[in-house]
Specification:
Layout: E1 6-18, E2 21-27, E3 42-46, E4 52-56, E5 67-72, H1 80-87, E6 93-97, E7 110-116, H2 121-132, E8 136-143, H3 152-159, E9 163-167, E10 186-191, H4 194-207, E11 214-217, E12 232-236, E13 242-245, H5 251-257, E14 276-279, E15 282-284, E16 298-299, E17 305-307, E18 309-312
Parallel strand pairs: 7-8, 7-10, 8-9, 10-11, 12-18
Antiparallel strand pairs: 1-2, 1-6, 2-5, 3-4, 3-6, 12-13, 14-16, 14-18, 15-17
Helix pairs in contact: 2-3
Bound molecules: FE2/S2 (inorganic) cluster.
InterPro entries: 2Fe-2S_ferredoxin-like_sf, 2Fe-2S_ferredoxin-type, 2Fe2S_fd_BS, Beta-grasp_dom_sf, FAD-bd_FR_type, FNR_nucleotide-bd, MRET, Riboflavin_synthase-like_b-brl
Keywords: 2Fe-2S, Flavoprotein, Iron, Iron-sulfur, Metal-binding, Oxidoreductase
Protein name: Phthalate 4,5-dioxygenase oxygenase reductase subunit
Length: about 325
Amino acid sequence: MTARLIMKLEVVAAEPTTPDVLRVVFRHPQRPELPEWTPGAHVDLRLPDGKVRQYSLCGDPADRARYTVAIKREAGGRGGSLWAHANLAEGGLAHVSAPRNNFPLAEGTRHILVAGGIGITPFVSMARSLAASGADFALHFCARSAAEAPLLDALRAVCGDRLHLWLSGEGRRLDPALIGPPAPGTHLYACGPQRLVDAVQARADADGWAPDHVHIERFAATLDENYKPEPFDARIASTGEVLHVPADRSLLEVLRENGFPVASSCEIGTCGTCECGYRNGTVIHRDHALPLAKRQDRMMPCVSRARVALTLDL
Ligand code: FES
């Protein structure tokens, strides 16, 4: 677990990109450059009550002086977006983490990007990078109307005719069958509302896409409601201490109660902040952040558990 750098950044612009999406630009008040990032990365915005929200960076990774995010006002959300809309204004300050990338572009020869609504944000920098490198890509963007499609002008400029706009208010909805069957070197990405990403995933599964060629970024946990957590023991490799994790507690909670300051953010298995190493155990991975290739020895203790026992690399 590595603690992430938290910076106090200045808001240099905060303006609506649609009626309910605020585009916010940050810079460091003293330093000319911010930590670098790659397309698909996000930052944590720390709220005054200590809670954390993740927002994808949607500017240009080559612009080291600024971070840009787009924040949708979610009236029924957990309060972070309402705070941001009410408080982030030009000249103000906010606590923002160094970027982390759980949704990177894969090595491939063709890329199919599918976004719904505010789920477009990670794809802006991805499309910019793909266009700059001359890569073969298509971006399918689903929204109710052009007026409600965030960052549309920037996308049109970057993508040209590689942007396919699906506006439900005009009766044009994306049929996931359009994605087509898998092809060598082709990667599929989706980000947006649950229904959209589930439809893309279901279509990819039905068409036989390899799991490591399908990349899904979720806004919320999709934990199996029928899953019944079982208690287990977690042994700490460095001390030999054994911590019991009851069925109704997360491993993250038990670690914290026992003095292990594990960094966390979403606590629903989507951000990757709490990642830690393990050995000697069977882990029930329940997150949406960890790539398949890392699941042999890494886990997300906010949602993942073990069968009977495991040893943690702590
Ligand atoms: S805190 Fe976000 S994945 Fe665990």
